[in-house]
């Protein structure tokens, strides 16, 4: 299948999308009607009062600086001073309807080759236009005694006069048009689910013909909103792959509502005619590259910022060591459940805001959080050894905002319980030095303490004993 390598300039012009992009031939003046691109053939097809019997022109014309195509053989060249406007549906020279498939082929070829600068392509297109719109109804229509209004186009004779390279184009054009005629369908598809701002994802653009096969080399003008499209120039133009496969677009959201719209020109069911306003009987009908219809594509989705992570540490206020096994509740700032990246609430099996427990290093991590989001960490109950400073009515808490793609580090400090010193009375074997049992040593020690603590009372007891 012939691909549309030269089509980009023709289709992407603003005028094409409004139904009449016509490409001026470089260096040609628009003041006078001119033959533009094509081949001269000799001798000309004979008919009565032929002003140029020695030649015919198979190609395009330049009118008002625009390239146009004759669709009714043997009429005089268009007057460049006349204004042209889209007219009725294109019919044959005899006023009959063009068969549906042929009309679709004409639309395709005008769209694809209407702005060609190749003489072979232009001659092939002109030859086919004449063949399809001015073919003889009977042999009488080829009689040289007919004037220009009644003479039919002798397709075989004209084809024989063309260069071999142009003849080859005629055959390839017919095959190409038969494969790629309209109607076309175009579709742009966004990825399923939310996208992440700043992270590229794949969108898909397809252009297909009636049998579902993709069409390659089709230019599409894209208009992005809240996205950047990789590989697209300032003009916003992309082209479908030459093999007709879907075009994979790498699209990076830059805002919350990614959207892409696109426009392309596709072959119309039937081409439109550009006809002279003032002298329809003496000026030939011409067509522009208006054998197209505009197709639109659109796709949109939503995007969120990258997820964030909260890392909370629980430490001893005196030693600064991490405290393991501390239960911490994770909530939004107002106490409601925090929100995960996918929009679901972060809750436990009981349906309440989730609780995490610090590990051996005294830290706990909460990942995949929607951002930006204010997160509050509240201590549920103290770890053993830290009960004294814990106020159940006002438990330790800390709040912070987690941002997209970042880790928010928070910390909570616990004061350890006040240490207690136990009273211990030693007991055991006698000491080798004195040979006194340890228990007696303990009593002696206790007596000594008692004596020291109550000296006056002990002396009185001793005096009284002597008197007796």
TrEMBL record:
Pfam families: SpaA (PF17802). Residues 309-387 form the SpaA-like prealbumin fold domain. Gene3D superfamilies: Immunoglobulins (2.60.40.10). Residues 1-31 form the signal peptide. Residues 32-52, 238-265 are annotated as: Disordered. The keyword Coiled coil does not apply. Keywords: Membrane, Signal, Transmembrane, Transmembrane helix. Coiled coil: none annotated. The chain crosses the membrane at residues 438-459. This is SpaA-like prealbumin fold domain-containing protein. It comes from Saccharopolyspora oryzae.
